[in-house]
Amino acid sequence: MNLQFCGAAKTVTGSCFYMDTGKLKFLVDCGSFQGTPELAQLNYEPFPFNPSELDYVFLTHGHFDHCGRLPLLIKQGFRGRIISTQPTREIARVVLLDAAGLQEEEFRRWSARPKDRGENPNYREREVREPLYTTDDVNELMTFFDVYPYGDSVDFKNGVEFRMRDAGHILGSAMFELWLENGDSRVRKIVFSGDLGQSGQRIVKDPDLVREADYVIVESTYGDRSHRNKDETLLEFLSILKDTQQHGGNVLIPSFAIERAQEVLYELNLFFENRLLTDMPVFLDSPMASETVKIFKQFPNFYDEDARRLLEKGDNPFDFPGFHETESAEDSKRLVSKRGCVIIAGSGMCNGGRIIHHLENNIENSKTSIVIVGYQVEGTLGRKLVDGEPEVYIKGRRMEVRAKVHTLGGFSAHADQNDLRYWLRGFGHTPRRVFMVHGEEQVANKFASDMKEELAVDTYVPSMFESVTLE
Ligand SMILES: [Zn+2]
Ligand SMILES: [Zn+2]
User: What separation in Å is there between the alpha carbon of 65 and the centre of ligand 2?
Assistant: First the structure.
């Protein structure tokens, strides 16, 4: 059987793995590429497979870099089924509706004002493009989903059996164990890790361990480093909040709407409930994060024990003194006059969304703190801030970065090298080969060589669009 790496190969985004077993054809994930213009361009290229021939898509979770191109499959003739957990389906709907809405809006705006593009050279290169898909396409996509719980193995009786396990990354995230019949009826077990969570996250559980596999496809986002300890991260977060409050500045938290925003709210709730922090309004300025809070409230059975216990005590982590959610763009703009508050807004990598006008209003103020809580892809504004660039372009205007930029790795939704090593050690029988994906090239290479040495396992870092035969 053949496996082709159609995304997230020597790069982080665009997860999409195509398998042809000789009996069936399917994908694991069909996500969007994000970051540099070269990567974003890949979203417009034809798929290296025929979508109408696919039998299934196994969807690991609802992040955009895993589900972002699903509507394109339907537009190109896909008539199979999409397999996921229920929260993944709901989250993917929110994420894709947001993406479709943004594309529609951008198209309207850019077609109306083709000349006014500011002085940023990147702006000049951009062209007005038709949306890749619309909200109608996303609504149609939802009818293709079949949802399953974790832990049940499901035999389709056609040469594929699968089981979803908790990947502990975001609500409903799954790794897939797949038992596949080869053309000659031999069964091979392939495990796709999806994105693996950091151990000790607040709301979701720790990743499940898998006992055996012939082949493993594992993510490697942070395969070359360790996160700071969670307690240290929380102390640092608290001191940033107090310090900024004392100086009358704002704390801006560019945040992914899915999981990151909820995990940050969870910590803020504990700070306020335990009176470690008082009189500091918190604005969740992200309709997508607010939608996701609703999904979180819907599925408490997917929480870990601590979060469930908190709920049982009657403390709702998404409701505390001073917490506000802004809905309309006008409400968001009204926040401009606020001082001494926390603003959580998307996008998480500052490449669009409401965080842009908050950065515009606060970045040149030395009292501002910008707290980075998630992975920043190369080429994004967020990455430039993390890398300490003294000047950045915002809405085409060059601005000086006078705000303090803090990176809190302990909030990451991704496993670090220790978590990844622990997960790989969980395989009792050494897999025939482990493929490292979903990591920048140097990171994936380092992780592959470290694991080869430590675990005496055959590792490989595939290139984009490379096909391999799984014996
Ligand atoms: Zn993810
Ligand atoms: Zn991912």
Answer: 5
Region class of 247: left (phi > 0), else alpha (psi between -120 and 50), else beta = alpha
pTM above 0.70, yes or no: yes
Which regions in the chain score pLDDT beneath 50?
A: 124-125
d(CA 392, CA 435): 36
Cα(191)–Cα(182) distance, rounded to whole angstroms? Answer: 15
Q: What is the DSSP string of 264-327?
A: HHHHHHHHHHTTSS-S--EEEE-HHHHHHHHHHHH-GGGS-HHHHHHHHTT--TT--TTEEE--
* Ligand nearest to the CA of residue 219, numbered in listed order: 2
Nearest bound ligand to CA 61? 1
Domain edges within the chain: 2-225+413-469, 230-411
Cα-to-centroid distance, 240 and ligand 1 (Å): 27
Ligand 2 centroid, distance to 339 Cα (angstroms): 34
For residue range 281-297, list pLDDT tens digits in order. Answer: 999 999 999 999 999 99
Nearest ligand to the CA atom of 65:
2
Q: Which CATH superfamily groups domain 2-225+413-469?
A: Ribonuclease Z/Hydroxyacylglutathione hydrolase-like (3.60.15.10)
Ligand number nearest CA of 92 is 1
| Cα 219 to averaged position of ligand 2 atoms, centre (Å) | 8
State the DSSP string of 29-93: --PPP-SSHHHHHGGGSPPSS-GGG--EEE-----HHHHTTHHHHHHTT--SEEEE-HHHHHHHH
**172 CA distance to ligand 2 centroid (A)?**
14
Centroid of ligand 1 to alpha carbon of 114 (angstroms): 34
pLDDT at position 124: 47
| Domain covering 230-411, topology | Rossmann fold (3.40.50)
**What type of residue is 461?**
V
Angle at 244 between CA 241 and CA 249, to 5 degrees: 130
